[in-house]
């Protein structure tokens, strides 16, 4: 069924307020906005905070192979995510597990400024797969895995671009990683796709981009 047309709303920026914080990996974007409605009227001004960064977008890669039975096996990587690990206990609606902030994820990484093109996204996917999982694949081997998505559109304008690639498990080497402490010593595992989706259903795989990638991979059969 086709979706209805969006309401005819437009944003009007009244003022961009400078951040008082020192420049960092992320930066605060504070703006005074108004909404222009279909009849031309404007809302009252309101302040809206968002987060920006120079390397805005990211690729998400689903590397897979088929076992002797023809079942699809997909590679996941462990990740420690500081914001999740530091989630304040006062904000918990339900108890959290002791491994809070430790996630199983599909390999992913930020798109460099020089990779902002269709071909550049594939180069980025190839680079990140080599760094995080240990497969040295040509960019041309990567195929799109559905359209891009906004992971947190109320906070940041980041898009995720999804790719899948078939790999040979015999050709995997030790990941070179990117040199950061958060990537050092991560575990890389191959999991049957149907088992990975079962782990999603039971909350053992909590990363949203990974769930999207796994479900899209399953649709490929």
CATH C-level class of the largest domain: Alpha Beta
Structural class: alpha+beta
Q: Give the beta-strand count.
A: 10
CA-based gyration radius: 20 Å
CATH architecture grouping of the largest domain: Alpha-Beta Complex
CATH fold label of the largest domain? Nucleoside Triphosphate Pyrophosphohydrolase
Annotate the secondary structure layout.
Layout: E1 10-17, E2 27-36, E3 46-52, E4 58-66, E5 72-80, H1 82-85, E6 102-105, E7 108-110, H2 118-132, E8 143-144, E9 160-166, E10 188-192, H3 193-201, H4 208-220
Parallel strand pairs: 4-9
Antiparallel strand pairs: 1-2, 2-3, 4-5, 4-7, 5-6, 5-10, 8-9
Helix pairs in contact: 3-4
Keywords: Hydrolase
Domain Nudix hydrolase: 54-213
Pfam family, one: NUDIX
Summarize the structure in short.
This protein is of the alpha+beta class. The chain has four helices and ten strands, in the order E-E-E-E-E-H-E-E-H-E-E-E-H-H.
What do you see in this structure?
This protein has helices at 82-85, 118-132, 193-201, 208-220, and strands spanning 10-17, 27-36, 46-52, 58-66, 72-80, 102-105, 108-110, 143-144, 160-166, 188-192. It has 221 residues and is an alpha+beta fold. The protein folds into two domains: 10-52, no CATH class; 58-89 and 97-220, Alpha-Beta Complex (Nucleoside Triphosphate Pyrophosphohydrolase), CATH 3.90.79.10. A hairpin with a 5-residue loop joins strand 4 and strand 5 (72-80). Helix 3 packs across helix 4. The two termini are 24 Å apart. This is ADP-ribose pyrophosphatase.
Task: Please give a handful of descriptors for the protein shown.
221 residues; alpha+beta; Nucleoside Triphosphate Pyrophosphohydrolase; 2 domains; 7-stranded mixed beta sheet; 3-stranded antiparallel beta sheet; 29% strand; globular; hydrolase activity; NUDIX_hydrolase_dom
